[in-house]
Amino acid sequence: MKYITSVQGQEYVIEIDREDQIVINGEPYRIDFAHMMDGDTVSLLLNNRSIAAVVEERDDTWEVLIQGELYSVVVRDERAHLLAKARANMERETGEERIQSPMPGLILEVLVQPGEVVTKGQKVIILESMKMENELRTGRDGVVVRVHTAKGDTVEKGQALVTIGELDSTPAGAS
């Protein structure tokens, strides 16, 4: 089976033929994959290199936390990928992006303010969880519409932290 995966604007073609091997952009990798007891954590051996990640499905994306870096990953089969590309050509991206806490933790830094223009991939929050600092980043260009938290706050998994709107959005309370 073939999947097209998008990670931070970069596309990868992933083919799964066998249980112990995947092919990424034509290059084969030996894998061993296991879900850990907590349900959200996965262990992956990729060409004998161990990778631990926290993975959570959200709407049409997967949030993947690896060594303190949070990645938004879109995975589609070939048919869904072609349909999504056709739709994207027909309509402009609208709506808001809500950056949520991938796990419970403590807000160490809020790096943006309402009204601030941000670019895709920009750090907006530093969250401490499980004794690790996690940098949460935007998934799109836009303007900060609302900051839902402050430095020193304790947050729960799934809690809204920052809302990013379109560049022509007016933040709540801004004049």
Lay out the secondary structure.
Blueprint: E1 2-7, E2 10-18, E3 21-24, E4 27-35, E5 41-46, E6 49-58, E7 61-66, E8 69-77, H1 78-90, E9 97-100, E10 105-110, E11 117-118, E12 123-129, E13 132-137, E14 142-147, E15 154-155, E16 160-165
Antiparallel strand pairs: 1-2, 1-8, 2-3, 3-4, 4-5, 5-6, 6-7, 7-8, 9-16, 10-12, 10-15, 11-14, 12-13, 14-16
Describe the overall structure:
The chain is mainly beta and 175 residues long. The protein has two domains: 2-89, 2-Layer Sandwich (Glycoprotein, Type 4 Pilin); 96-165, OB fold (Dihydrolipoamide Acetyltransferase, E2P) (Beta Barrel), CATH 2.40.50. The protein has one helix and 16 strands. The strands form three sheets. An eight-stranded antiparallel beta barrel has the order 1-2-3-4-5-6-7-8. Strand 1 (2-7) and strand 2 (10-18) form a beta hairpin. The termini are far apart.
> Structural class of the helices, strands and pairings?
mainly beta
The CATH architecture assignment of the largest domain turns out to be 2-Layer Sandwich
Largest sheet: 8 strands, antiparallel, barrel
Q: Which overall shape is indicated by the principal axes computed on the Cα atoms?
A: globular
- Count of distinct structural domains: 2
**What is the CATH topology descriptor of the largest domain?**
Glycoprotein, Type 4 Pilin
Helical element count?
Answer: 1
Which whole number gives the mean pLDDT? 83
Low-confidence stretches: 89-93
Residue share in β-strands = over 45%
**CATH C-level category of the largest domain:** Alpha Beta
Q: What's the helical proportion of residues?
A: under 10%
Terminal CA distance reads 52 Å
